[in-house]
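Why does this matter for the project? Reviewers at the last site visit asked to see concrete outputs rather than summary tables. In response, this paragraph embeds two records directly. Each consists of the residue sequence and, immediately after it, the corresponding structure tokens. Nothing has been edited or filtered.
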Amino acid sequence: MNRSDLAVYFIMGTENCKEEPLNVLEDALQAGITMFQFREKGPRALKGEEYVEFARACQRLCNHYHVPFIVNDDVELALKLQADGIHVGQKDMALVNIREQFKGKIIGVSVHNEEEMSKAVLNGADYVGIGPIFKTTSKPDAEPPTGVSFIKEIRNKYPNYPIVAIGGITTENSNEVLQAGADGVAVISAICQSSNRRETVNRFKTKNY
């Protein structure tokens, strides 16, 4: 994985979309997102075979556009689909166990403080997701916002480590995040709720290159 893969990291599930989710994803892929995370959560989230089939459809689109397909939290699904990688939180399976099952795949970890960061590095995560940077509506149980100061702190300590920032990031505030040292931005609402998804992705890309 290159650090540039994190430039515009799109996260999506059916509950995040106002219209057909696969159309939303294809628009984002055509516009040039650099990584996609399948995150199907919430009270009305798909279950069972519908869940697996929706994941497969997202994966097919990502493969077509040569964009890494990452599964959020669900180790079983990621293995079943032979996803390009998995992203886990602090309460999920231990990273060392995941690495055993995902040799040669991308593993990302969410971190909220320095202790979690050093553990992620020590245990071989390929990248970390730091956040929430700003207040977010996409994750009801999100930790309190850290602002960009934590990114600066981590970037100073780990100058070459792949970092993606998440939480309340928009085309208006993404510059602040990138200047603090993040390699890219991970977004849900900014793309899902946009009235012009291609333009939104392009604006994120322009700020990143």
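We now turn to the second protein, recorded in exactly the same manner.
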Amino acid sequence: MRLDLVPRTRRSSLLNLLSPALAFVAAVLIGGIAVAALGVSPVQAFVTYFVMPLSEIWSLQEIALKAAPLALIATGLAFCYRANLWNIGAEGQFVVGGLAGGWVGIATHGAEGMAIWILPVMLIAGTMAGAAYALIPAVLKVRLGVSEILTSLMLVYVAQLLLDYMVRGPLRDPAGFNFPQSVGFDPAARLPYLMEGETLHMGVLIALLAVVLATIVLSRTLFGFEVRLVGASPRAARFAGFSDARLTLAAFAISGGAAGLAGIAEVAGRIGQLQPEISPGYGFTAIIVTFLGRLSPPGILLAAIVIALTTIGGEGAQIDLRLPLDLTRAFQGLLLGLVLGADVIARYHVRIVPGGPSSRAVP
């Protein structure tokens, strides 16, 4: 006996809409069982994870600040994944963007007469550096047929080591008591805060703008149609005259640019200087966010908020309930698996075929 997946002739729009919600409910139930096995009340854990972060102003700001880079990176990755291209190196592109833009902030430290230009130049430098770094695996794939999965992933560690070297060497603050960090950025090199006395900065608006632009591009432009067509049917795209090589370069440049912009927004926003680590793993977590959002920018924004919510809630549960932080990561992975499984059920019927592979005739 074997199980076959048979495509549904008519897909239910209601099932497509409800499947992520059902997957989330299933993940919460399974997580509740795991929490109960650890000796903690599932109800108390649910309140700590999902209710308490929504009840305080500071935690709402933290959710927005964590969701913004995730949404920005994941929106860029959606262009690659929709075109059936696999950029796994957004973490490295994030780091390179932060390093390049941060270098501009350091080079202009204390400068007079050009304050108004510093921040825009930093953002442009970070975006261009991330795009250029992403083009390395893209060019290797187009020219030499090298797997973009391996090259983009390996370049992550190159970027991290480069940042570590720079902040411990050429960019280290000479008056910083030998700590591995750069000078603090001038106010002109920092993203402005949206509210006086709070932590919410303009990077959140940049992420929202990116989501809106990506939605328009993917749904209303010829390039968006090309991305969708190449991902769905590469052969049909070639017959239509679309170039695989050109799309590969464009998609990687967009995803890398978005990651680089997120990197400099993080450095010029929350951190305010360069240091050996500027990312808690945003580039890798954004891969989960991209698929949780079903490669759709509005869905990605919602998924980024959910992941940020569980992260803040997990930190609270670690303090209040003594639950391990790894439980939060396991929940996020479980949620991704259940969402993908729900998508399969929404698209296919499961058919039981008696006999199995051994009973089939060999030609």
